[in-house]
Every structure is written in C-alpha cells, then in structure tokens.
Amino acid sequence: MIKVNPYKDSDLGKKEQVTKMFDTISGEYDGLNRVISFGIDIKWRKKVVDIVKATNPENILDIATGTGDLAINLAETSAKKIIGLDISSGMLDVGKQKIKAKKLDQKIDMVIGDSENMPFDDNTFDAITVAFGVRNFETLENGLKDILRVLKPGGIFVILETSVPTKFPFKQGYQFHSKVILPTVGKLFSKDKTAYKYLSESANAFPYGEALNNILRKIGFSNVTDMPQTFGVATIYKAFKK
Fold first, then answer.
1. Please, which residues have CB within 8 angstroms of residue 46's CB and are 6 or more apart in sequence?
2. pLDDT tens track of the chain, all 242 residues?
C-alpha cells in the first residue's frame, strides 16, 4: 500500500500531519464536504446506520468521528451511549456544538484519542463504525487490530470509505472529480490548500473491495462483506468479531 501524507515536505509523522490538517479545515469541513460529494455521503451514512441498527447495539464507538455526522445519525439506533473518537480537537469542537444543538449531549460523548491505541478496555463495544477515516490511519493494520480488541465478541464493525470505480464511464468520471474538481475546490475555498489534494490522493491509493476484505480477514474479522455504493465511488464493509 502506497503511503500518502498531507504535507510532502513535513518532518512530522502521518498521524501528526493528519491532526494538523483536520484542525486547520475543521470549520469549513462540513460545508465543503457536502459540495464535493454532491450530498450523496448523507445517503451512504444512512445505510451504515441501518446496518448497525439491525444488530440492536447498546453502545457504539464511531472512530475518526470528525465533526460527528455519523455519531449523530447513530443516535436513532437503540444505543444508550455513543462515543465519537478523533485525534483532531478542532473537528471534535465543531462536533460538540452540533451535538449540543441537537440536545444529544447526554447520549453522545466526543473523545480525543488515537484510533491505533484507544483508551478503552478489551471487548467494550457492541458496534464500531468508521466513515472516511481508515485511510487516515498511520498504520492500517494497527488501527484494525485495536478495533478488533475493543469490539465485543459477536460485535459488528462497519466501514464506509471511498473506493475507485472500475467500469466506464464511472472510472473516468471519478478520476476527473478526484484529480481536478476536489483539489480545485480545496484551493479556492479551503484555508489549507493541500488538504483536499491529500484527501484525493489518499482515496486513490487506499485498498478497496476484496483487497480490504482480505486485510480485515487477516487481522481476524469474520463474515467480511463489501457493498459498493453509487457505481463504486464508495464502499461499505461489514465484518464481525468471532
């Protein structure tokens, strides 16, 4: 897997670079995300919620929660407690404001932490989700191992992540969108001119479909399945802990 970092000339590790990048763009992230994805990401998140809801979880961990969109959506499940974890305090601050406005602060806790070394006991959560975050892990396998550790036996793990369409003309359309539109929007409207270039490059370099399924199986997850969304521009992965 090719390693892609936000800042090519930085001496910081990927984790520190990602934290710095998301802290910088936290205030604009939600608005630009809706523009860049044409709002389709809302529909994808709803599918993740439906998958999790079917398992009737009591507690849920949403990793790389960012500004809390998925954590807020997950409040409609049976869960009594939802924790949103992220390494960016800037993103969490935006999320906390959204959660307070929706009067969900009794149900959702926003916690700062490293997804590859989480501050939770083994076998803690009934369900774990991560939307558009696994490609930002410094070491993918370490993050997935820690997710498996804190997931209860029989618990569900759901990933929503970008993927690359393989069929004409969606493949060509995706490449144009990721290599031209996304970086251009970032340059025009973002405080961090390289952030959206990184988001595009990391999406293109990240393993998807059967490649990611196999990594999940190697880590120890079972019943791994993938469900491509919107011609393959994103994929939902579902896996369980034995």
1. 73
2. 667 888 887 889 999 999 999 999 999 999 888 877 888 999 999 999 999 999 999 999 999 999 999 999 999 999 999 999 999 999 999 999 999 999 999 999 999 999 999 999 999 999 999 999 999 999 999 999 999 999 999 999 999 999 999 888 989 998 988 888 888 888 887 888 888 889 889 988 999 999 999 999 999 999 999 999 999 999 999 999 99
